Hints:
With 97 residues, this protein is of the alpha+beta class. The protein is built from 2 helices and 5 strands, in the order E-H-H-E-E-E-E. Strands 1-5-4-3-2 form a 5-stranded mixed beta sheet. The longest helix is centred in the first third of the chain and has 16 residues, at 22-37. It is globular and about 30 Å long. The protein starts with a strand and ends in a 15-residue tail after the last strand. 22% of the residues are buried.
Amino acid sequence: xxxxxxxxxxxxxxxxxxxxxxxxxxxxxxxxxxxxxxxxxxxxxxxxxxxxxxxxxxxxxxxxxxxxxxxxxxxxxxxxxxxxxxxxxxxxxxxxx
Length: 97
């Protein structure tokens, strides 16, 4: 089984710890692992994220979002996450010509 390294910044850790339902934690764990496997921006669920902190990306689906940074192969740091209706703003990659 591949090994993943997933770090949680304080705000992401607080959000994760607030999730009382274990099935939601399992879902978040699966999403974070899938990001480790393929962190590449695809403009479908993973986008560039404009911030003062360079290199951030955001994963978003219909119910959940996580702002993350790739720190190495199979390694990410989740900066923030949530279930809010208003996810963070994203910056779409410009298509290559």
